[in-house]
Design goal:
Length: 167
């Protein structure tokens, strides 16, 4: 399953699932992509289909392994990954080094176990208000689910996950 970033950073007011769908299509990817975010309807840990959570690796756009499988992201260690394996945007840029993302932080709105944090998910990703808070993770920590709260006015990286495998 591919883990890919949107082509630009976003504040807490985003239509992330739609952006993931649209940018994946434009990149020529035919499978379904969902935002790597907890929402008012779903915890991040359940975004990927049950049948695909254990046996498929999570890879970047170039097929390099980031995680053994989906479940391994939510084992309580904060989604630890190898920071030497790049995360690419749909248009092929490395979000860790490209200046289009000045802040190397990803939104997630979740606990370390992928459960939604209702107090820290920018009002279900519908506000960029300075006073509202969203849970995010600085990528330099080597974790996708590090637990830091930021103002929803920040423009951070938004990741998308391929939520089901089609051979």
């Amino acid at each position: 399953l591919h883990l890919v970033a949107l082509n630009l950073p976003f504040s807490g007011d985003m239509r992330a699932d739609f952006q993931c769908f649209q940018q994946a299509q434009l990149a020529g990817l035919t499978t379904t992509f969902r935002a790597f975010l907890s929402s008012h309807l779903q915890d991040l840990a359940t975004v990927v289909r049950k049948t695909d959570r254990y046996n498929l690796p999570i890879v970047n756009l170039k097929g390099e392994t980031l995680f053994k499988n989906w479940e391994s992201i939510f084992n309580g260690n904060g989604g630890q990954f190898n920071i030497h394996v790049p995360i690419y945007s749909f248009d092929g840029r490395n979000v860790m080094t490209d200046p289009s993302w000045p802040q190397k932080v990803i939104w997630h709105g979740s606990t370390a176990n992928g459960i939604r944090l209702v107090s820290n998910y920018c009002e279900a990703w519908h506000t960029a208000d300075l006073a509202a808070m969203g849970q995010a993770s600085p990528l330099k920590t080597g974790k996708l689910l590090d637990q830091k709260a930021y103002s929803c006015s920040n423009q951070f990286i938004v990741l998308c996950i391929e939520n089901s495998f089609v051979s």
